[in-house]
Amino acid sequence: MIGFWESILLTVITAATPLLIAALGELIVEKSGVLNLGVEGMMAVGASTGFAVATLTDSSLTGVLAGIGAGMALSLVFALVTLGFAANQVAAGLALTILGLGLAGLIGAKFVGTSRIAIPPIHIPGLSELPLVGKLVFGQSPFFYLSVALAVGVAWFLKKTRAGLSLRSIGENHSSAHALGLKVLRTRLLAILFGGACAGLAGAYLSLVYTPFWSPGMTAGRGWIALALVVFASWLPLRVFLGAYLFGGATILQMHAQAASLGLPSQALSAFPYIATIIALVLISMRRVGATPAPGSLGTAFVPPR
Amino acid sequence: MAEVEGADAPLCVLDGIVKRFGDLTANDHVSLTLRTGEIHALLGENGAGKSTLVKILDGLLAPDDGRILWQGRPVTLANPEEAASLGIGMVFQHFSLFDNLTVAENIAVAMPAGVRLRVLNKRIQELGDRYGLALDPKREVWTLSAGERQRIEIVRALLREPKLLILDEPTSVLTPQEADNLFTTLEELARQGCALLYISHKLEEVTRLCDRATILRGGRVVATCNPREETPQKLASLMVGSAIPPLRDRDHRPADVRLSLRGLSAPPAELHGIALRNVSLDIRGGEILGLAGVAGNGQSELFEILSGERAAPDRGMVLIDGEACGDAGIDARRRQGAAFLPEERNGHAAVGALSLPDNVVLSRHATSDIAPSGVIAFDKARALSDAIITKFDVRTPSPLADAGKLSGGNLQKFVVGREIIGNPRVLVIDNPTWGVDAGAAVLIRQALIDLAAAGTAVLMISQDLDEIFAIADRIAVIHHGTVTAPVDARSVAREDVGLMMTGGQGVSHAA
């Protein structure tokens, strides 16, 4: 019985990790006042580039780095268009998703059908063999630890550091921030690049750990879920963490429910994680305690007055 | 102009500054000299080019022509950061604050990197004690009143230890006592060698506080003078270019009670809002009742309940012409003959992105024939809008311009006109002349006087005691959600009202 629950928890973690990484990246982007709807596209490019480079170099680490780089490169296009030319962020973000999905297919075309050995979970002799918590705490994929560190790090950065405060101010009111001498466009560029890196990393996780192969469409809407998580989590990093795990948990739950054939239509069960996550996060944000509204300048272009 | 290097050079010289926006020349060869230890007033009507000039001085705008000399050396101010590093500080009229951040965070973000929050909290406290600018560092800004927000701006600017401090209308939300405190602070700063550039519409203050005044009209310097030797009337006529007509007086002949509040108590609508406590008022036809108070003492909560934006807890708490209407909506109350005008003109009273006629439809659709059965009769809306523009001397780029394109004073004249032209029997108006120029303020106040003379009951909520004493027949004070019993405006001293605004017992009032 313990084995069963342990394996469920492990799969929940596997499902939640990419969402968490991508959503934390987007959270930083949105906190700086930029709405990048291209997460799905950046994730796809990260996944295909990561897999392709890992196969060519036979190095998973190089693949992961390539995935991050690909996500950043694509986000740079978005930054150029929205910051450089002050284009509409919604339109640019949607275009980025379409571009990213197409580009990912192109990059990965030659690698469809090949597979690699997944990046293994870490193993600490002794600790990882402990009963109950051993595998759960000390035997996870390196990505899991990275994602947890990222969640804590992002929360700390926003709340406790000077740079985080500047970033929040810029997202809140870019005109005031500019008037106070903060570097609005530079900060937003860095935030967008960070978001791209996180989306690329989440993509590389999919193709190198979650399912160690590349196929077009393998991101399966996870970029959009990550976007929704940021909003429903009221732009709070630790709530994003909660939401990602809620969604991961509900996903695994509905898979088991489908396998157990409860007599419910499979479509309804497939929809369950989405509905459950939305309801839970709406209920949380309804309490208003500690909730923060959307950044004031979210989605609006900044052109310095001269 | 002779150039002087070194210690004898004036702190800052603006020399022949020109700034054009398209066809409009906002600054036309403006020259100005600022010396250490001097409080220099910059005067002018809305649109005279004051804001443009200070934005150039703050590095926000680049001049098209002219030079800026700082301690005798020519400088270019490419961005606000460079201005700040020279020692130019700015207190903005339209607050440059971040609503969702705390007071401390709002201040920390403007400080050099490496200032610890704990140290900062202490310095905020010290400054607050020293200058009477009390602030709770942990409160989020959106929960604060306009007066408290102003304090953040000032404290933030002072913590940067500026050599030149620019203040844009700093006293418009302060009580007389708070303003006096501020003046003491500013005089102290000047004594310590800070130069101050002081922008204000309140000419009384300028004649009391400032050492020199530069007056702008139409983008040009029309006069430089020592305000201590001038009268406010003289300064006003220099600003406007002609003498401002004084308000015409009238008899106070109160008729029947038109608007009543009966024991109105209401919990706050927002997390940090103000609860109204047992508010009772009777406003008679033919009178203007001025409700004085520092911003954030329940004025907006009271306005919401009076206008019907929020229902009163009990329908009998609000009566219009004796009829209980505490549960009625805005349109229903307007059909009863009431009209309402909130404080915030752009965003509450009017929608900036809609044309003037559309903005007329917004508030008058229920009380005129411009939208019969829900379909807008554009010709009629346009005709009504044009009538308002003519009657209230609204200067607009075009009769169909978006409301947001009008200057503050002109938009305010328009929205005031929109309510008054329907001859309401009751008018509730919140800060009718906040941030508008002297000419527009006189026109609006005269319109309110004329409206009351025609038999309307006017409740005017205002933070501006000058305004209250200029036109109100009776005065009540709102403080922490309670309202004092009204007193006759002719029999009460300004200082007493000021004291009551901060919770002191100025004159005897009902519990």
Largest interface: A-B, 23 and 28 residues
* Helix coverage percent of chain A: over 70%
Strand content of chain B: 15-25%
Low-confidence stretches of chain B: 506-511
CATH class of the largest domain in chain B: Alpha Beta
The poorly predicted ranges of chain A are none
The oligomeric state of the chains shown is heterodimer
The CATH topology of the largest domain in chain B turns out to be Rossmann fold
Sketch the major β-sheet of chain B: 7 strands, mixed
What's a concise summary of this model?
The complex is a heterodimer of chains A (306) and B (511). Chain A has 306 residues and is mainly alpha-helical. Helix content of chain A is 71%, strand content 0%.
Please tell me about this protein's structure.
The complex is a heterodimer of chains A (306) and B (511). Chain A is mainly alpha-helical. In chain A, helix 1 (2-31) crosses helix 10 (222-232), helix 2 (39-57) crosses helix 9 and helix 3 (60-84) packs antiparallel against helix 9 (184-210). Chain A has helices at 2-31, 39-57, 60-84, 89-108, 133-138, 142-160, 162-172, 174-179, 184-210, 222-232, 237-259, 266-286. Chain A has a domain at 10-115 and 127-223. Chain A is globular, with a radius of gyration of 20 Å. Chain B has 511 residues and is an alpha/beta fold. Chain B has two domains: 6-240, P-loop containing nucleotide triphosphate hydrolases (Rossmann fold), CATH 3.40.50.300; 257-501, Rossmann fold. Chain B has 16 helices and 21 strands. In chain B, strands 13, 16, 17, 18, 19, 20 and 21 form a seven-stranded mixed β-sheet that branches. In chain B, a hairpin with a 2-residue loop joins strand 14 and strand 15 (323-324). The longest helix of chain B is centred in the middle third of the chain and has 16 residues, at 176-191. The termini of chain B are far apart. Chains A and B meet through helix 7 and helix 8 of A and helix 2 and helix 3 of B.
